[in-house]
């Protein structure tokens, strides 16, 4: 019931890699518990202070007696300390303390320093009377001195130069199989010895070995209670775990690689071709120096999964490092080891995770690195990716060089626009465009559906998804360039079917319940209509489902809800002042409506829909061009005047107002939309267009044609107006898509308007200014 009152001075520690906290306290005095007031959540008690220094000096007799005792104690203590290595600063300090501290305090201090069991320490604590305390501590000192003598004798004979204090310990008692504290300490000590052994046997670089040995020397001298102890130990453990020399053997065989790539991925011919070239060069040259591949394309087109396939073909470990939102360069390069909670960067962590020094690292989303006050992570990546430098990559945490030259880096991004130029320069960009509907159907049936079936424990005998259903999902439930949403929808279908199948199994086990409802004849007639497979049909639930469950449009609606996207195009184009443009976003191509309306006013132009500066300028350009050509095209305002803005305000709106839009390619669409507004004619409902305009009415080329065309194709449009100088981009588009579409190549706005309106757009006088006047 006796304890020590103490003051907490410091709490340090971290939760990484495992929770380890150190509490630094200053002991104040002994106290005794008089009454326990409560135990939870922490004990509270009434206590009485026991140590009072005046008390010790009271009474002459005891002082004399004590004087002898304390003198004896002091002698032993000095003898013990002098047997230790005085060159260690802590020992020298202890020696000084013996002289400076009041004698009464010595028994407590020395008991805490010399090797004693917990039990013995408690006994000393319980000895409230000073005399008793001295008497009890002296034998412990003597024991320690004897132990040291013995040890020094054996040491000498072994010529061991290690002067550490190792004390003999009393016989350990292991009570009821539980580990005493003593044993724990020994374990820790053993751990350090093991660690040293591991360091010596590991294959780390010479420089690293030197650093580690120095650290382990420090660790041995450090009391475990020091916060640095945990830090140093974590550091050394990491150093031992790192794959300094461990690698997997490459098995590079181009023919096998081609098969793996083809098996894992449908379509993406250009990407696969480039990857094979890359691997072939690696095989011939037998090293990995070369450009870093960077796959750029919309989400869900398989960039990550191609990276994984490359690792598979090479027989290497694969590790993905997500860089999206990383804004601190220590994320890449690690924190310096000077503060608590420091840790290595993601590269070194990745190497530790995979356990070999030649993995494939996929740097995901390099376009989403951000800059902040904590430095520029892109700059740190430069060092990682540069083959000239990365053989001696120095993580701040490790503080020694690690060779990254065997690591194969692959990067992915949605757009190159936001990749810092210096980083982009180190990489070879391979565009991965979105998929056509046909490609998506193939991908779904070859890869996604089998994968989802396996994930949900279903077999093709239980569920059947015909191609028309897949097409329905693609067109009516998803609108994306990749296949990720499609994959999710297929997952949802599999889940719903899994419930049905599991219920069916349950019912089959109890056939008597199957007779409810309209019944048994349903079991016999397996028809292809919606009946047996409409999942939400309650009468149906009473029956074991007919296998395979066919997913048709009714079932789709039951599982996925009403279609999310309608073929709304024609509906929206049924009044003048609407046109369809094509836009490119990092997520792939999209169709974009442009709406215009006019009202009485003072010639103002209002633009809404989150537009960037370039887009606003395009709108101004379009209006200027139309105003200057109003007569030629017979465009009038509401009161019949050719001055289009006379007493008229114009409002242009780009729906999906939450998405920021910018870029010059909407120019032709704005012109067409306004021409429709002022002429009162409807734009053809199946036409989409893209192109930049000039003040003189020329149409300039724009980027992202392939993605835009795919988007138009997805939306069911038939005719696409593109700038003439973009003709070369059409070659990249799959033949079957091209077959479905008519392309109009326009060099000037005349041609655009003619193609956009049924029956052309009448021009009063032919344009002359394209012909040379010379
Ligand atoms: P990204 O990294 O481009 O965002 P992922 O690589 O994560 O996309 O791909 C998403 C999913 O789509 C993966 O399950 C992948 O297997 C599948 N996938 C994408 N493209 C194809 C393809 N051409 N063939 C087979 N599966 C594909």
Automatic annotation (TrEMBL):
Region (Disordered): 508-531
Residues in Lon proteolytic domain copies: 573-759
Gene3D superfamilies assigned to the protein according to its UniProt record, in alphabetical order: 1.10.8.60, 1.20.5.5270, 3.30.230.10, LON domain-like, P-loop containing nucleotide triphosphate hydrolases
InterPro entries: AAA+_ATPase, ATPase_AAA_core, Lon_bac/euk-typ, Lon_lid, Lon_proteolytic, Lon_Prtase, Lon_prtase_N, Lon_prtase_N_sf
Cellular-component GO terms for this entry: peroxisomal matrix
Molecular functions per Gene Ontology: ATP binding; ATP hydrolysis activity; ATP-dependent peptidase activity; serine-type endopeptidase activity
NCBIfam families reported for this sequence: lon (TIGR00763)
Protein name: Lon protease homolog
Species in which this protein is naturally found: Helopsaltes ochotensis
């Amino acid at each position: 019931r006796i304890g020590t009152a103490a003051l907490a001075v410091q709490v340090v520690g971290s939760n990484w890699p495992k929770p380890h906290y150190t509490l630094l306290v200053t002991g104040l005095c002994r106290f005794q518990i008089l009454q326990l007031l409560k135990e939870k959540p922490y004990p509270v008690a009434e206590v009485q202070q026991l140590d009072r220094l005046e008390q010790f000096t009271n009474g002459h007799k005891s002082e004399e007696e004590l004087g002898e005792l304390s003198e004896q104690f002091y002698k032993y203590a000095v003898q013990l300390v002098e047997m230790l290595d005085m060159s260690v600063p802590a020992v020298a300090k202890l020696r000084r303390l013996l002289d400076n501290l009041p004698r009464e305090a010595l028994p407590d201090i020395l008991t805490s320093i010399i090797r004693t069991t917990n039990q013995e320490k408690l006994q000393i604590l319980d000895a409230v009377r000073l005399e008793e305390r001295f008497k009890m501590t002296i034998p412990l000192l003597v024991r320690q001195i004897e132990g040291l003598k013995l040890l020094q004798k054996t040491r000498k004979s072994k010529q061991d130069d290690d002067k550490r204090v190792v004390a003999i310990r009393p016989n350990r008692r292991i009570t009821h199989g539980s580990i005493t504290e003593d044993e724990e300490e020994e374990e820790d000590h053993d751990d350090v010895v093991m660690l040293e052994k591991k360091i010596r046997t590991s294959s780390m670089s010479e420089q690293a070995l030197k650093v580690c040995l120095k650290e382990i020397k420090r660790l041995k001298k450090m009391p475990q209670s020091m916060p640095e102890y945990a830090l140093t130990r974590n550091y050394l453990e990491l150093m031992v775990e790192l794959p300094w020399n461990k690698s997997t053997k490459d098995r590079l065989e181009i023919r096998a690689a081609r098969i793996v790539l083809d098996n894992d991925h449908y379509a993406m011919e250009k990407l696969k071709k480039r990857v094979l070239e890359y691997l072939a060069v690696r095989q011939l040259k037998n090293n990995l120096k070369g450009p870093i591949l960077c796959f750029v394309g919309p989400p869900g087109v398989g960039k990550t999964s191609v990276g994984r396939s490359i690792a598979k073909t090479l027989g290497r470990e694969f590790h993905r490092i997500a860089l999206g939102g990383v804004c601190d360069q220590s994320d890449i390069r690690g924190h310096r080891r000077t503060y608590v909670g420091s840790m290595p960067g993601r590269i070194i962590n990745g190497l530790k995770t995979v356990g070999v020094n030649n993995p494939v690292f996929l740097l995901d989303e390099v376009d989403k690195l951000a800059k902040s006050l904590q430095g520029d992570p892109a700059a740190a990546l430069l060092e990682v990716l540069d083959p000239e430098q990365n053989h001696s990559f120095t993580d701040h945490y490790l503080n020694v060089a690690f060779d990254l030259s065997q690591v194969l880096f692959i990067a992915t991004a949605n757009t190159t626009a936001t990749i810092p130029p210096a980083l982009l320069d180190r990489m070879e960009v391979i565009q991965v465009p979105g998929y056509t509907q046909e490609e998506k159907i193939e991908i779904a049936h070859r890869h996604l559906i089998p994968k989802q079936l396996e994930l949900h424990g279903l077999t093709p005998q239980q569920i059947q998804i015909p191609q028309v259903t897949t097409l329905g999902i693609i067109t009516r439930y998803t609108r994306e360039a990749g296949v990720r949403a499609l994959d999710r929808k297929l997952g949802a279908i599999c889940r719903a079917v899994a419930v049905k199948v599991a219920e069916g199994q349950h019912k089959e086990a109890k056939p008597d319940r199957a007779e409810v409802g309209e019944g048994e004849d349903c079991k016999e007639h397996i028809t292809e209509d919606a009946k047996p497979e409409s999942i939400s049909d309650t009468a149906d639930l009473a029956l074991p489902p007919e296998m395979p469950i066919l997913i048709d449009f009714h079932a789709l609606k039951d599982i996925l809800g009403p279609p999310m996207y309608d073929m709304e195009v024609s509906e929206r184009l049924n009044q003048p002042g609407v046109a369809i443009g094509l836009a490119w976003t990092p997520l792939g191509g999209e169709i974009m409506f442009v709406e215009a309306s006019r009202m009485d006013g003072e010639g103002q132009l209002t633009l809404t829909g989150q537009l960037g500066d370039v887009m606003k300028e395009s709108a101004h350009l379009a209006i200027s061009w139309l105003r200057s050509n109003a007569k030629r095209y017979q465009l009038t305002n509401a009161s019949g005047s050719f001055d289009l803005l006379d007493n008229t305000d114009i409002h242009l709106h780009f729906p999906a107002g939450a998405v920021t839009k910018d870029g010059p390619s909407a120019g032709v669409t704005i012109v067409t939309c306004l021409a429709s507004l002022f002429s009162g004619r409807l734009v053809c409902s199946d036409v989409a267009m893209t192109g930049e305009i000039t003040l003189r009415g020329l149409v300039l080329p724009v980027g992202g044609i392939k993605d835009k065309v795919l988007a138009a194709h997805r939306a069911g449009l038939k005719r696409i107006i593109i700038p003439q100088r973009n003709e070369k981009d059409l070659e990249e588009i799959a033949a079957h898509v091209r077959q479905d579409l008519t392309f109009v190549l326009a060099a000037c706005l005349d041609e655009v308007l003619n193609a956009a309106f049924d029956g052309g757009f009448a021009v009063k006088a032919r344009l002359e200014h394209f012909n040379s006047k010379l």
